[in-house]
Design a protein that fits this description.
Elements lengths: L4 H8 L2 H17 L7 E6 L2 H4 L8 E7 L15 E4 L11 E7 L8 H11 E12 L21 H10 L2 E9 L8 H4 L2 H11 L6 E8 L14 E2 L4
Parallel strand pairs: 1-2, 1-4, 2-3, 4-5
Antiparallel strand pairs: 3-8, 5-7, 6-7
Length: 234
């Protein structure tokens, strides 16, 4: 099983990581501009992104599958992070309005089981927003970033794995057209890379984003024994 922890923390502390967070937050914020009063679950390494909604959401939890690697969130505050088993989420049925999935699907043992657990904990009108490495993008070839770990997806593959888990894709997008580099002169042009990439070569995005809704009449999977470890702040 791949472990993204060793790549995620150093990457997000780097100049390239900071720029990629800024660019991805913009896309995520456009897709979900206001989650006031809603219950939000982040799965994977989502702490850099959940701050978009933490202040206004009714509840925000960063759930970290064991294969991703543990980290506390937020730092120096009561922890809102939990260690979980990806196909045995320790939450009741219909618990969340929204689920954000980043740095998790590409390294899980079973994408279908993982997504079916997400289906179970989402409310019937809930939405899933997923970010995965693009098979056709340059980021999937850079092992120094967490987007270069695990299994990348094409748009067709992502749509299929979501459909197999009883999700219907409603919106898709691409992001991170700049190369995965810490060279400042390239990072300073990140906005230009994004604009040109979207206009000229959208198929070469570093990551794919998809917003999906659950098909409410699919059968609920049988429950397994669940366990959770709440992280203490560091």
């Amino acid at each position: 099983m791949a472990n993204n922890a060793s790549q995620s923390e150093p990457f997000y502390q780097s100049a390239c990581g900071a720029v990629s967070v800024r660019l991805l937050r913009r896309h995520l914020g456009l897709m979900w501009p206001d989650l006031g009063g809603q219950s939000v679950l982040g799965l994977g390494h989502t702490a850099p992104y959940l701050r978009l909604w933490r202040e206004k959401a009714r509840r925000t939890i960063a759930a970290i599958p064991e294969h991703v690697g543990l980290h506390a969130w937020p730092r120096n505050l009561p922890s809102l992070a939990a260690a979980v088993i990806d196909d045995q989420l320790p939450f009741a049925d219909l618990s969340f309005d929204r689920v954000l999935l980043i740095h998790a699907l590409e390294s899980t043992d079973s994408a279908k089981r993982f997504l079916r657990e997400i289906w179970r904990v989402l409310k019937d009108d809930g939405r899933l927003l997923i970010v995965v490495p693009n098979r056709n993008g340059v980021w999937t070839h850079s092992e120094r970033t967490p987007f270069g770990q695990g299994r990348p997806f094409s748009i067709r593959q992502l749509n299929q794995v979501l459909a197999d888990a009883c999700f219907r894709v409603e919106r898709q997008d691409g992001a991170l057209f700049l190369p995965p580099t810490d060279r400042r002169f390239l990072l300073r042009g990140a906005e230009i890379w994004e604009q040109l990439g979207h206009s000229l070569v959208p198929q070469l995005a570093g990551v794919l984003l998809a917003e999906a809704v659950k098909e409410a009449y699919a059968p609920i999977p049988a429950k397994a024994t669940r366990r959770m470890m709440v992280m203490e702040p560091v």
